Amino acid sequence: QSALTQPPSASGSPGQSVTISCTGTSSDVGAYNYVSWYQQHPGKAPKLMIFEVSKRPSGVPDRFSGSKSGNTASLTVSGLQADDEADYYCSSYAASNDFEAIFGGGTKLTVL
Amino acid sequence: EVQLVESGGALVQPGGSLRLSCAASGFRFSTYWMSWVRQAPGKGLEWVANIKPDGSHKNYMDSVKGRFAISRDNAKNSLYLQLSSLRAEDTAVYYCVTNMAQNKFDYWGQGTLVTVSS
Fold first, then answer.
1. Residue A104, Cα to own-chain centre: how many angstroms?
2. What is the tens place of the pLDDT at every residue in A7-65?
3. Which residues of B touch A35 (CB under 8 A)?
4. Which of A42, A75, B48, B87 lies 20 to 30 Å from B40, alpha-carbon distance?
5. B residues 20-79 near A, CB within 8 Å?
6. If DSSP states are collapsed to H, E and C, what string results for chain B?
7. Angle at B97 between CA B84 and CA A87, to 5 degrees
8. Of A36, A57, A106, which has the smallest distance from its Cβ to B44's Cβ?
């Protein structure tokens, strides 16, 4: 199973919005509404930001939103803040085995 | 508060073995799927394996099948990963992660570093 495709980098100024894409196939992203997104600051463990395409866990600001169209999922961060600068990873369920989760290669978000 | 504390990471020679442990607290460990996810130095995340709440079903990524074994002890609120026939490409930080719903990795430990080198 190949990794999901994310752009290596994205950037925006404080207050702006930025969207990160995550492209898979009809066997993973396109087949299931089980896409999740994770934020990882340097030297820290990842943190769940979005699950089931567009749901936010308790405590995640509504500046973070998710969507999906066909084989591509997206994470949008609105009202960029300095602390949003981090690596972001998407993940999708992919039933090639009984269960398999695949991740994207990650996107480094820079707040200019 | 959910806490996941991994241990057992070390420097090991190619072909060697290691057992990772994860002590869980702050939630009903015995009712949730659990996963191991790894991250090679400077690289992205990679799901490794997961295990059903009662331990009766386990899944693995292709490259570790037959070499790694996931297990759990619900009485001790602990998750384990036995690593065998280790290769240089297994070098990574290994995270213990809760799986409270499909493809939903809710809580992560701080990770434990496994380095495979001669």
1. 8
2. 999 999 999 999 999 999 998 999 999 999 999 999 999 999 999 999 999 999 999 99
3. 103
4. A75
5. 35, 37, 44-47, 50, 57, 59-62
6. CCEEEEECCCEECCCCCEEEEEEEECCCHHHCEEEEEEECCCCCEEEEEEECCCCCCEEECHHHCCCEEEEEEHHHCEEEEEECCCCHHHCEEEEEEEEEECCEEEEECCCEEEEECC
7. 105
8. A106
What's the mean per-residue pLDDT of chain B? 96
| B46-100 residue pLDDT tens | 999 999 999 999 999 989 999 999 999 999 999 999 999 999 999 999 999 998 8
- Does A88 contact chain B (CB < 8 Å)? no
Confidence (pLDDT) at A98: 59
A48 touching B, CB under 8 A?
A: yes
Task: Identify the pLDDT of residue A1.
Answer: 62
Angstrom distance (rounded) from CA B18 to CA B38: 15
Chain B CB contacts of A34 below 8 Å: 102-104
